Amino acid sequence: GVEVGPQPQGVVRADILDKMRKIVKHGLDFVQLFNEGREFPPCTIEVFKIMEKVDYPRNKNDEVIAIIHPKLQDQDWQPLNNGDPLFLTLDGEVIAYKGDCTVYPTFINEAAYYEKKQAFVKTVKVNLTAKHIRSSVL
Question: Which keywords annotate this record (predicted)?
Answer without folding.
Answer: Hydrolase, Metal-binding, Zinc
